[in-house]
Amino acid sequence: MIIDTHAHLYYPDLYDNIEKIIEKSSENGVKKIIVPAVDLKSAEIILKMTVRFDEIYAAVGFHPGDLKGYNINDLKYLENYAKEEKVMAIGEIGLDYYWDKSEIEKQKMFFSVQLEIAKDFNLPVIIHTRESVDDAVEIVVKKKTKLLKGQFHCFSGNLQNLKSVLELDDFYVSYCGNLTYKNFKDINIIKNTPKERLLFETDSPFLPPVPFRGKINQPGYLIHTIEKLSDILEVKSDELIKIVYNNTLNLFKFN
Ligand SMILES: [Zn+2]
Predict the structure, then answer these.
(1) CB 3.0-4.6 Å disulfide test: which of 92, 141, 176, 252 passes with 207?
(2) How far is the CA of 130 from the centre of ligand 1 (A)?
(3) pTM of the model
(4) Which residue segment(s) compose the domain that 166 sits in?
(5) How many A from CA of 144 to the centre of ligand 1?
């Protein structure tokens, strides 16, 4: 069984065809999908989706690129959502220096407090980094206790960053469909990722794998990313799927 640990299915292009998207995922072996929120509004939509579809699970959190109009007191609402049964993680949270460098201190504060909330609720975290992986890893290392576990999604760090993440117990990395593109530069980083620390994700609707490049990504396309990952890691895709399934269940506590 394949689990897509990261798909933003509330984007209109996907949400408007949600039944078909889920059906197609299932036909392609993807039986569970974690949909990460980026703010309170998306969290509400996702929680409704989890009631409607057995396959859909939620993560709730404030994305570093979606903090406008929110202040630190709004994190108390997140705690209400975190109690919900199908909430698998606090996410996606993190740091993004690509879009908005003006609010780095606010981003860091939201990130740090959400790491603490995750510990309080004994939930893993789903971490977004963009041009910020050094700082994000540094904060996680500082906050790391036995209770803090999680995923660096769409991992884009260098070998030293990867080494730091792998030194953290109960932390995993995942790579997106752009690893199938000809100009993808981080094959060597993937080669250095132990299979036991890997998760699968699409980041739908973004970064669709070849042969769907340029289209709207969806969980049903995940197998193309998995096949390329199997090539890079020199393992049969069936075997990789089994290993990653176990990794996913180690991190996320599905009922
Ligand atoms: Zn995302």
Answers:
(1) 176
(2) 11
(3) 0.97
(4) 2-251
(5) 22
Alpha helices (runs of H) in 8-145, residue ranges in sequence order: 12-15, 18-27, 40-52, 75-82, 104-120, 133-143
Q: How far apart are CA 89 and CA 124, in angstroms?
A: 5
Tokens read off for 90: 């606090």
pLDDT tens digits for range 94-128: 999 997 777 899 999 999 999 999 999 999 999 99
What are the φ/ψ torsions at residue 38 (nearest 5 degrees)?
Answer: -120, -10
Protein residues within 5 Å, CB atom, of ion ligand 1 = 92
pLDDT in tens, 48-78: 999 999 999 999 999 999 999 999 999 999 9
Give the number of domains in the chain. 1
The Å distance, Cα 92 to ligand 1 centre, comes to: 6
* Ligand 1 centroid – CA 128 distance (Å): 7
In CATH, what number is assigned to the domain containing residue 150? Answer: 3.20.20.140
Bond into 205 cis (ω within 30):
yes
